[in-house]
Amino acid sequence: MTATLLKEASPPPVSMADRRRRARRRGRIVALAFVFPALLLLGALVVYPVLFSVGRSFFDASGTRFVGGDNYTEMFRDPATLKAVRNTAIWVVVAPTLLTGLGLVLAVLVEKVRWATAFKLLLFMPMAVSFLAAGIIFRLAYDEDPDKGVLNAAVVSVHDAFTGTSSYPTARARDGQGLTKGADGSYRTTATASPGHTVDLGLVGVLPKDLAQGARPAYAAAGQKAAADELRGVVYLDFTRGGGGEQGKVDRQESGLPEMKVEAVRDGETVASTTTAADGSFRFQDLGSGSYSVRLPASNFAPPYQGVSWLGPALVTPAIIGAYLWIWTGFAMVLIGAGLAALPRDALEAARMDGANEWQIFRRITVPLLAPVLTVVFVTLVINVMKVFDLVYIIAPGPVQEDATVLATQMWLVSFGGGNNQGLGSALGVLLLLLVIPAMVFNVRRFRGSQR
Known about the structure:
By secondary structure, this protein is α+β, with helices and mostly antiparallel strands. It folds into two domains: 70-154 and 310-451, MetI-like fold (Orthogonal Bundle), CATH 1.10.3720; 179-300, Immunoglobulin-like (Sandwich). The protein is 52% helix and 9% strand. The strands form two sheets. Strands 1-2-8-5-6 form a five-stranded antiparallel β-sheet, with no helix packed on it. A three-stranded mixed β-sheet has the order 3-4-7, with no helix packed on it. A hairpin with a 2-residue loop joins strand 5 and strand 6 (269-275). The chain is elongated, with a radius of gyration of 38 Å. It starts with a helix and ends with a helix. It is found in: Cell membrane.
């Protein structure tokens, strides 16, 4: 009797299926406990701002009056926004394409370099530099002043090496001193001279740095007499340091202007040309009888070449894209290099044994096998360039900020940079989100496909 009662009071045995369900339930609870802080942060920092921006985009600048889709309509009527859309499209097409191509070429070439690790490290180092610091670096590098901007310093050096530069860009003649200025910037004597005569050409405004170190006083040269068949003269600095001297006359302390091109002109045609000596003297020999004008060509006074306006309206966007390439090329190279290292070497060796050259192997084997990696790199860079803000805001000067603006900078300018219209800024943010989502979805599907 007692044994029967104890048997009836004992709990029913737990089946294996119930145990599995309880284990799964406990696992879900533990997983949720670990994931909950991340979900909380994700909701506070991502989901809530997105939903708030979507809602805010339907209100006016003050946020009190519902305007429906007016902000979206205004967004596509605003010329600045349309320019931002155009510049963003340029970024999306140009930057990821160049980066993927450069990364592929460098990844292939690095395999053939002896110090491959050091080379990769060198190219990857810009990734450690913040966009703020990189923007400041390139803002200085693109400076139009050759004394500050390294790029223009190089351009000016190459230009001057091949075409030369003017000797005295700031020189000019005094009024009433026998020289008249032509429309092209040259100077010409008002009176004519014949062989056997001398001509003194005085100029002022020559900076001390422009005066050649070997320049000598012009006084002795001015006193020399010309032969019967030659026309002599001197080009000098009509200025005496410390004051004194007489205008239009070569004084003892006044320096000649060497390396000045001088021409003898008759009936509007140049019949002879020469260059002044260290004391500024020149002479034209074997001239025929008659009257001649002496001309100082405009090339003597041309302003120095200042280089390229990298941050002007025409080149500011390509210049900023160049800075972006400097930062992200190492990233693309390392990712593509990792994919390259995983390629089956037997396929490459088989192609070489069949007589394929390196270009054929690269085009027909390496690139097709790397297509999944190249796609991931390209799409990742597309997402990144759509959000670019720092480089554009820092590198582009104020006057050309509108010419370089992209959607991210335009959103900031409209909302906080003087526009104070957060309704329109929110609409721009929603547009940027809608443009980024397809690329993100594509990337997620690629990752899932690769895992399968």
